[in-house]
Amino acid sequence: MLAAWGLCAVARAQDLPDPADVSPAPDAAPRAAPREPDPADRELERMLENMTPDELQQLVKEAMKSRLRVERQQVAREIRDAPMYFDPKAKAAALAVLEKDPADTQKDNIQRICEALATVDADFGAVHKLYAKGEYEAAAAKALPSLDTRDASYLSAARHFLCAQALAQCGQGERAVEVYADLLANMPEKISFAATASVQAAATWEKLGRQFYAMKMYAYCLANYGLTLDTEEARKILLKIEQYEKVYRDPVGTVAGKMGEVQRRLAERDSGQVTQTRQKEIVALLEDLIKLSEERQGQGGNSNSQNNKPREKGESQGQQPPGAVGQQGGNNPSSPMVDSMIVPGPTQRPSNLAREHVGDGEGDWSALPPRQREKLESILKTRAPEGYRDVTRDYHKKLAEDASGR
Confidence band (pLDDT; 50, 70, 90) for 248? Predict the structure, then answer.
């Protein structure tokens, strides 16, 4: 049971903030009488506060393993209950893939979930086969028409993820991050897919030379999925955020400093690798700043209501007609970049997510009362590494400022 309590804190850390949950109540609203502290709350707080950092880390690991197991159970239920999957042999084979010797990692869950769904769904199976063969452009072209942001099933998450991966592999980076963003905005509870998508989206922005957007996505990843990452990966991401923050806190000063270093090296007749690297960094930073300026100016006429308009089946932001992959260059988007394409902001959950965490029996974290979940979140946040807490706090503060400025 304690592992389930820890797991609820992991899941809460991953939830995208919902404006409905944080809006202040009207002054005239009736105020509930203060409740007496729940003995279970006090006992839980006492247990967690007495744990060492190593014990708490182990608790989170065990909780994440439990969540990954629940994820596989949810996929199994989706396969068993779906009316379009009528072949009992295919169902049995898919369930066997989910159950046999799981490694209890996000990567392993993604691989076996995709393989299981490819076993029972012919269309996704075709995409999966093309991707496995390295035919990424064909895989993306096959997947794009079936994307539906209104569908929050595991099959939809797998389609979005594999499509984004294929787009990134065939040089369509900006289209890839659009599909990653759709997955994050509409299926954030699909833990393995969403957490990995946030990291992959940030890495894709880096490959595109858009370090500012990469920084924002990495911060989003830590704020929402930090507890699902292993310690080493979380540290690497935090280090990248800190490095990018130094650059973009004073971009002009950064450029000037790098230019001064290049001039000094050239004056000393040093045109080696370090000098060439600094020159490339200067050009990349200047290009990113110019693009940021152009994109922000281009957003002047765009309304938030238009940006947040639900898209129809198979429609992604800036999407080309089905089968048109490769006709548009990856660095030439059809419309100016908007923040919702970088990281998902506070979004209202689609109604079809309401039953996302219906339990599969013992260990289901959703059964905990809200007050216990809030208490766990508060306690574990205070025990998080200082750098992680700062990133999380700053990220949510920025979201609140953006919301109040609209």
Answer: confident
**pLDDT value for 347:** 35
Check if the beta carbon of residue 122 is closer than 8 Å to that of residue 291.
Answer: no
d(CA 337, CA 212): 13
Distance (Å, whole) CA 47 – CA 372: 13
Res 158: pLDDT: 97
C-alpha–C-alpha distance, residues 384 and 301, integer Å: 41
Give the Å distances, CA to CA, from 36 to 5, 44, 314, 367, 376.
21, 16, 51, 21, 18
Q: Which of 297-311, 341-355, 374-388 comes out lowest in average pLDDT?
A: 341-355
CA distance linking residue 61 with residue 230, whole number of Å: 9
Give backbone dihedrals phi and psi of 301, rounded to 5 degrees, phi first: -95, 0
Domain-wise residue ranges, the chain: 1-18+39-50+369-406
CA angle 89, 90, 96 (to 5 degrees): 90
Cβ(228)–Cβ(14) under 8 Å?
A: yes
CA distances from 114 to 172, 206, 255 (A): 22, 26, 44
Q: Is 156 helix (H, G, I), strand (E, B) or coil?
A: helix
- Per-residue pLDDT band for 75 (boundaries 50, 70, 90) equals very high
